[in-house]
Amino acid sequence: MKTLIVAEHDNQSLKAATLNAVAAAQQLGGDIDVLVVGSGCQAAADAAASVSGVASVLLADNAAYENQLAENVSLAVADVAAGYDAILAPATANGKNVMPRVAALLDVAQISDITAVIDADTFERPIYAGNVIATVKSSDAKKVITVRTTAFDAVPAEGGSASVQAVEGAHDAGVSSFVGEEVAVSDRPELTSASVVISGGRGMQNGDNFSMLEGIADKLNAAIGASRAAVDAGFVPNDYQVGQTGKIVAPDLYIAVGISGAIQHLAGMKDSKVIVAINKDEDAPIFQVADYGLVADLFAALPELEAAL
Amino acid sequence: MKVLVAVKRVVDYNVKVRAKADGSDVELNNVKMAINPFCEIAVEEAVRLKEAGTASEVVVASIGDKSCQEQIRTALALGADRGIHVEAEGRPEPLEVAKLLKGVIGSESPDLIILGKQSIDGDNNQTGQMLAALTGMGQGTFASEVNIGDGTVQVTREVDGGLQTVELKLPAVVTTDLRLNEPRYASLPNIMKAKKKPLETVSPADLGVDIQSHVTLVGVKPPAERSAGIKVESVEQLVDKLKNEAKVIS
Lengths: 309, 250
Prior knowledge:
The structure holds two protein chains of two kinds.
Chain A (H helix, E strand, L loop, with lengths): L1 E5 L10 H12 L2 E8 L3 H8 L6 E6 L8 H11 L5 E5 L2 H14 L3 E5 L1 E4 L2 E6 L4 E7 L4 E5 L15 E4 L9 E8 L12 E5 L10 H10 L2 E4 L1 H5 L20 E5 L5 H7 L4 E6 L12 E4 L2 H11 L1
Parallel strand pairs in A: 1-2, 1-4, 2-3, 3-10, 4-9, 5-9, 12-13, 12-14, 14-15, 15-16
Antiparallel strand pairs in A: 6-7, 7-8
Helix pairs in contact in A: 3-4, 5-8
Chain B lengths: L1 E6 L1 E3 L21 E3 L1 H15 L5 E8 L4 H9 L4 E6 L6 H15 L3 E5 L10 H9 L2 E11 L3 E8 L2 E8 L2 E5 L11 H7 L4 E4 L12 E7 L8 E3 L2 H10 L6
Parallel strand pairs in B: 1-4, 1-6, 4-5, 5-11, 6-10, 7-10
Antiparallel strand pairs in B: 2-3, 7-8, 8-9
């Protein structure tokens, strides 16, 4: 058994999601290599080489890979796939974009968003917005898999001493180009890696009221999230969305404010260690998963909470 | 410009799906079916391109048994011009669906193909990317904005932490995210008109595809239950519990 992990990185640093994918790969057993595809990304490759449990790091460093265009990156991954039994990536926006393309190039299925490894061919994954967990068995000789990061505890980022080998050749499919990006600049931790998350739902009533969460987030060093209903209503951008079709989070503390608790939202946060719900409707389903529920008008409770912290 | 939209028949998003008692599969008897919400956004986007004069024809394709003609008719009522039903039994996997759609592209030669980013049944999020790979096209996944240029399309994508814009050569594949548009409701006159719009049926063999299975469903189970905790009376008590009982804040 030989597994390749496609690293999540921003050319300078290795993203923590990679460590969760390595953890999933360890459950498959066998050797684990990491492939870093990017541009000017030696630092990310060096970081991957020191990850615990990594045998060797492959580095595909070329300008064509700078912005992780799926058309180019998938060709780079498919190129080195021949020597591996499984190719894994975290189920991030980037992993979801690139990996199905890799699977199609290899003419195999992709197993998306696995939450458990049963054996080398059999996996668990949530379907129907997390209402059901399916156990699926792959008959492909080569597996292409994306990993739900919150389901696997990250391996240590230090402790390994893998070699870094450059991959020959580069691919530019010539059908796509990067135009620009708007990345929200924030001093707050990233939603998927924050140890505290405070999320607002439709009960927030409008986007301006999300500022009421900011003071609390500042005090707790928390990331701010939202339910799909709040995103749908246009209160906040989609990258705030926690849920089956948004981000999956599992912080130490999750505070749900004005969120009813639709299954699609629960699927994105129910692995949090401690869940707090603040909602004025005492029958809201969110209370069924909350460790601490406060039935209160959020517009009264939030200023009080901020003052009490 | 011709636009091809793929739609999938799925369990209506309001239905709470459960595992069957024997755990062999999910219970799908007598549940309400509908067009996948992300596919509906794809249809809406294509129809808007036509209304803006950018697209000349909107063709909608669906893969499945006869019943998925219902969802094609829904798309026709929303403004698509004609339908293609690829008749396939069972539940073709994303890779096979992508191969069938590649076959449809072969005979239709669309300039733009729009799909939903994922279906709310399998939650795979694969078909658009696989189709783009098989056809060698560029892909604009998780789109929140689509702007057609001269032989190109600019797609603004929802990515972790913000938005990314890419430019793709046409023909290209776009998959829709939630905020791309808000789909309209079909009016009764348009539902009536849709019944007369052309709908052709083709077989996988017509498209040169021999459907394979790569993944088998071993079983299903409900997700691990999380039990409800306690109700606190006040913010003060909440903060006290978080500090001294759960010890998650200091």
